[in-house]
Amino acid sequence: LSQARAGIISTVEVLKVMEAFVNEPNYTVWSDLSCNLGILSTLLSHTDFYEEIQVFVKDVFSPIGERLGWDPKPGEGHLDALLRGLVLGKLGKAGHKATLEEARRRFKDHVEGKHVLSADLRSPVYVTILKHGDSTTLDTMLKLHKQADMQEEKNRIERVLGAISQPELIQKVLSFALSEEVRPQDTVSVIGGVAGGSKQGRKAAWKFLRDNWEELYNRYQGGFLISRLVKV
User: Fold this and answer.
1) Regions of the chain where pLDDT drops below 50
2) Any idea what DSSP says for residue 11?
3) How far apart are CA 182 and CA 188, in angstroms?
4) Contact (CB, 8 A) for 66 and 22
5) 134 in the Ramachandran plot: left (φ > 0), alpha (ψ -120 to 50) or beta?
6) Residue 82 resides in a domain
7) Which segments constitute the ERAP1-like C-terminal domain (predicted)?
8) How many domains does the chain have?
């Protein structure tokens, strides 16, 4: 990938190498593949190839997704649980039909209190249903945020809200970032999530940062959070 980014080889060569990893069992390798595909997706979101890279993601990640399934297997380790969350989140965001349907089913059961999602599955399920969700989905997520007893759960929700796609809902998430519902130190996570969520989100987050620069700069007094905000 570094060679492709430097213009030495074609990105097509990178994708061919990635295809060779479909039977890879190691979490660290998949994490690296996921990160690199994320970089490519971001770049390609400004081109006609964005939908095609999503198809590629589904093709590469679906075999490992089918092997892992949704539920822990006896004797599996911590890395398998991490890998399951990574893979399901990637497939869900890319619009993998079976993953999206199962995520919606499990989310409904979670909200209704029938079957609470395990901590490992919450982020991938939340991301999936938001990415392909509507105003009702966002309202449900904000309600879960309000009801959450633990700060860890609030932060988990804050980080994924930016996955929502519709422009008016993106604005709602950005307004939420500066509300009293979000701790000042966590505002950056919400705006960063929007910036990383979609092409529309990046543009909206950049405009929001400029429009609210004075308030944000005064809030963080030039500390590390303002530099992190600019970076995301």
Assistant:
1) none
2) H
3) 10
4) no
5) beta
6) yes
7) 3-231
8) 1
Condensed to tens digits (0 to 9), the pLDDT of residues 53-109 reads 999 999 999 999 999 999 998 888 899 999 999 999 999 999 999 999 999 999 999
Q: What is residue 178's predicted lDDT score, i.e. its pLDDT?
A: 96
Domain limits at 79? Answer: 1-94
Which residue matches tokens 């190691």? 26
Would you say residue 23 lies in a domain? Answer: yes
Contacts 24+ apart (CB under 8 A), 124-128: 124/85, 124/86, 124/88, 124/89, 124/92, 125/88, 125/92, 126/156, 126/157, 126/160, 126/163, 127/89, 127/92, 127/93, 127/160, 127/163, 128/88, 128/89, 128/92, 128/93, 128/99, 128/100, 128/103, 128/104
Q: Which residue has the tokens 């209704």?
A: 112
